[in-house]
Design brief:
The protein is mainly α and 496 residues long. It has one domain: Cytochrome C Oxidase, Chain A (Up-down Bundle). The chain has 18 helices and no strands. Helix 2 runs antiparallel to helix 3 and helix 10 runs antiparallel to helix 12. The longest helix is centred in the first third of the chain and has 33 residues. The radius of gyration is 22 Å and the shape is globular. The termini are close together.
């Protein structure tokens, strides 16, 4: 056997204690929110009878919780890899988690103790006009919890902005604009830096808008004479929410950029096409939110047309470039597939598959029919579960590897196929239900809808069970996750 001095032979860095704390939090909340989602589906399927009040409480927690925990998990991935390139503050990273947990406690209290169930969208003026179903204090706790969480993420992104500017001078250089608009000298920032810079720009913008409308609504709650334009409030809420949830997968995809090249021994190059795609999405993701409001005719026509057009355009840049890049570095690379690489690769399929229903629904004539049906959650559950969550599980598997020679267990393989198959079945039940005009956000379903609900419940239970296996495996290996060990199996034909 010959010996070579290939960089892949070096141990991969273990996770910072803060990253592990983020992931443990994400795993716990994710399982809880998945369980809430399963209970909601079982209620619609008439398999349990918890009543509409509990349904809408769980719906409020499920939506807000899933968005928040996707942000925490994505931030863990981004911070873990970005700190290899810039000097980040561990203190601010931990402070964000502390603020997040504080916000979660406030939200749980508002719903479970205060009976708030105004949905995760908290559209004005519903929180302040509950018709006696919840108190102003409960609404204030919910919106205050969201505000606290938002402050934590603002601090995190400000620290990332500071570190990136300190290293690269400005955002333009960190996005690779000198190489994009000039000569490609091969010195463009790594994909991780480009993606993190884009996320920082869009998330800071979205979070400031979100914090502004939350503050305005809190004032209105106690000073009713402070009236807010309802259309403006809705636009601000949807802008903030859509930017934030999109940013979660833009953070998580950094795992693909960093880990797959280690498997294939091929670098992920930040070429002109890559840089152009991320720069284009930096702008488009901030103007795409009206594609969820196409039937809200009170909005100006130009805004709806903008959402329609940008909804088409933003489907492609990052997704297509990332998918094509993954295929190219894997093609004839001799990659040895394990659970990490499988999860990361299937996550790109989930991202693409989830984007297609959005592309279809973003067509105004289609949206006329599909609006407010289960087609919409079918889209974002595919996008988040088989896309973003698969990236997180892949990252967890990567950290939990004991050495590069470790084989996947039977339980691990069963969890992979259970999660993949369960997610596909679950999301297809949503999409088909939407095609059949089954309304979303309804606690009670018509008898002809119940068979779809029962099929969806079965697949949802499979997703929860498979996710539990992933989480147990990760928790059992927390000690390994913090160590510097060789985690990546060698490509076929590579000798050490």
């Amino acid at each position: 056997m010959t010996t070579t001095h290939h960089p892949a032979a070096a141990p991969e860095p273990g996770a910072h204690a803060g990253v592990l704390a983020y992931l443990v939090t994400a795993a716990a909340v994710l399982l809880l929110m998945m369980s809430f989602g399963l209970l909601m589906r079982m209620e619609q399927a008439q398999l349990i009878d918890m009543g509409p009040n509990w349904f809408y409480q769980l719906m409020t927690l499920h939506g807000a919780g899933m968005v928040g925990i996707a942000g925490i998990a994505g931030a863990a991935i981004m911070w873990h890899f970005l700190r290899q390139y810039v000097d980040l503050s561990a203190g601010i990273f931990i402070a964000n988690l502390v603020l997040f947990l504080g916000g979660v406690v406030m939200i749980l209290a508002s719903v479970l103790l205060g009976n708030f169930h105004g949905a995760w969208t908290f559209l004005y003026p519903m929180p302040s006009q509950s018709m006696g179903m919840w108190s102003p204090q409960a609404a204030a706790l919910f919106m205050g919890g969201l505000l606290v969480i938002g402050v934590g993420f603002v601090l995190l992104h400000l620290d990332i902005a500071r570190a990136v500017i300190a290293r690269y001078g400005n955002f333009a250089r960190a996005l690779g604009w000198p190489q994009l608009f000039g000569r490609d000298d091969g010195k463009a920032p790594p994909p991780t830096v480009v993606a993190s810079t884009m996320v920082t720009i869009v998330n800071l913008t979205g979070l400031v808008v979100g914090a502004s409308i939350l503050t305005m609504m809190l004032v209105n709650l106690y000073v009713p004479s402070f009236v807010i334009d309802a259309l403006l409030a809705k636009g601000m809420i949807y802008f903030f929410g859509h930017v934030f949830i999109n940013a979660t997968i833009y953070m998580a995809v950094i795992a693909v950029y960093e880990i797959l090249p280690r498997y294939t021994r091929r670098p992920w190059k930040a070429n002109k096409v890559f840089l152009a795609s991320w720069s284009a999405s930096t702008l488009m993701v901030m103007f795409i939110f009206p594609h969820h409001l196409l039937m809200d005719f009170a909005f100006p026509t130009w805004m709806l047309v903008m959402g329609h057009v940008i909804g088409y355009l933003n489907t492609f840049p990052i997704l297509v470039v990332t998918g094509y890049g993954a295929l190219m570095i894997v093609y004839r690379s001799g990659i040895r597939w394990d659970m990490t690489s499988r999860l990361l690769f299937v996550s790109l399929f989930g991202w693409a598959a989830g984007a297609m229903p959005a592309f279809i629904d973003g067509t105004i004539t289609v949206n006329l029919v599909m609006h407010n049906t289960l087609w919409v959650p079918g889209h974002f559950h595919t996008y988040l579960l088989l896309g973003m969550v698969a990236m997180v599980f892949g990252f967890m598997y990567y950290l939990g590897k004991s050495d590069r020679q470790e084989d996947d267990s039977f339980v691990g393989r069963a969890a992979f196929w259970g999660f993949t198959g369960g997610t596909l079945g679950f999301t297809l039940s949503f999409l088909y239900s939407g095609k059949e005009s089954v309304a979303r956000r309804y606690a009670a379903h018509l008898p002809e809808w119940v068979p779809y609900d029962r099929i969806g419940s079965l697949f949802a239970a499979l997703v929860v069970a498979s996710s539990l296996l992933f989480v147990i495996r990760f928790l059992s290996r927390l000690g390994l996750a913090g160590r510097n060990v060789p985690r990546i199996p060698l490509a076929h034909g590579t000798a050490l």
